UniProtKB/TrEMBL annotation:
One of the Pfam families matching this protein, by short name: GATase
The protein's name: Type 1 glutamine amidotransferase
Origin species: Sphingomonas olei
Domain Glutamine amidotransferase: 40-205
Domain of life: Bacteria
Keywords assigned: Glutamine amidotransferase
InterPro entries per UniProt: ChyE-like, Class_I_gatase-like, GATASE
PROSITE patterns attached to this UniProt entry: GATASE_TYPE_1
CDD domains: GATase1_1 (cd01741)
Amino acid sequence: MNHFLVAESETPEEREARRRYVGKSAGETYAATLRQLAPGCSIELVEPADEGAPSFRPDELKRYDAVFLSGSPLHVYQKTPAVERQLDFMHAVFRAGTPSFGSCAGLQVAVAAAGGSVRPMPQRMEAAISRRITRTAAGHDHLLLHGRAPTWDAPAVHTDEVERLPEGGIHLAGNDVTNVQAAEISHERGIFWGVQYHPELSLREIAVALRRQAATLIEAGLAEQEEDVEGRSVLLERLHYAPQSRSLRWMLGVNGEFADETGRRRELNNFIAALPAIDRR
C-alpha cells in the first residue's frame, strides 16, 4: 500500500476560499484524485507554508513513498515567510530522497529549491487550456509522458512560469506560451517530476478558477468582458459532465487528451506507476 504525503501550497485564507467555491482545498483535491488512482493508499496532508507549521526532517520524509505538491497563488520569487517555509520543506524532500511530484506552483517550488528561477509570465497568463504542448527531444522516451499524443492540451491556470531550470533539470515538454511545461529535477538525493499544468483538477474546478479570476483574464487580454469568461466556464462545466460530447469538444477545440479524465491524469498515473523505478535511482 502506498503511503503519500500531500503538501498544501496555499495560504490558510486561500484554502478556505477554495473550499467555499469548489468544496476542497488544492491539497484536498490532490488527495481525492490520488485515492482514485491508487485505491487503498494512505494519505497525509500538511501545510508547510503556514506560520507555525511543524518542519520536516529528511529522515521523517523517508517513510513516505512519494510527496505531492499542490498548486498555489504563492509567487516563489517573492521571498515572503510563507514562500521561504515552502522552499525549506522542498529542500528537506530533496535531501530525503523521497520521489516527488508537483503541478503548477508545485513545479515552481521544486525549481526554485533546486537553484533554478521562476518569473512572472511575459504574456501575463495561461488559462483554461494549455494548447499544443509538445515533447522536447529529452521528453520523447521519458516515463512521465508515456502514452501522450505527439501534441496535447491540458488544464492550466497560471501567471508565473519557470524561467531557468536548475542544474540537474531536464526539460521534457513545452508550448509557445510557456517553454517549460514538464520537467524532471535531480537534486541532492531526490528526483522530482512536475508539470506546469494541472492533471489533478477536474474541468469543473477549472471553470470555477476562471470565474474567480475573471478580472485578471480581462486585464490579460484573454477575454473582453465577464460574459466571455462565463461562456467558457459553462462549456468546461458541461464537458465535465459529458466528456464524450462531440459538440462540446468541437466548441472548445479539444480531444480526449483533455476531455477524458484518464487523458488529463496521464502524468500522475505515470508517476505512480514509475515509483519503484524512481526509488531505486
